[in-house]
Amino acid sequence: MGIRGTGMSEYPVYEQTSVVSVDPGTGVARGEASIGPARYGDIWKVVLITTQSTSTTDVELRLYRNVESPGSMIDSTYSGRSATSPCEVWLRSGERIVAVWTKGDIGATHSLRVEGTNYSQRIG
Question: What phi and psi, each to the nearest 5 degrees, are found at residue 70?
Fold first, then answer.
């Protein structure tokens, strides 16, 4: 996706979201959070995704574009307690990275941090 030369400004993206795992009635801990550009016209190029968890047992993390479905999976790890993944994910305003943590401890806090560039038409 070519952005340079379009008159758009570039700003760094350092965004984070978190969630606490609950038992949705299955006996397996689960937490879900999402993150992405909220301002109309913004486009994010995400180049690094980092996860942390307070769980004392293994946690699985799956990342999706917009919805949790096999066809929209971006990445996954069985080391969701602490992992970093270089990537290249483009998101337009309204699109999201959906993070789903499973297993691990009920009540554990999971966080997702994304880093990259925001291409925006805003001024200043």
Answer: -55, -35
Task: For residues 86 and 105, give the distance between their C-alpha atoms in angstroms, rounded to a whole number.
Answer: 26
pLDDT of residue 1: 44
Q: How far apart are CA 3 and CA 121, in angstroms?
A: 11
Q: Residues, the chain, total?
A: 124
DSSP codes, 77-114: ES-TTEEEEEEEEEEETT--EEEEEEES-TT-EEEEEE
d(CA 50, CA 115): 9
Domain of 93 in residue numbering reads as: 16-120
pTM of structure? 0.87
The structural domain count of the chain equals 1
Is 25 a member of any domain? yes
Neighbour-count burial of 23, counting CB atoms closer than 10 A to its CB (0-12 exposed, 13-18 middle, 19+ buried): exposed
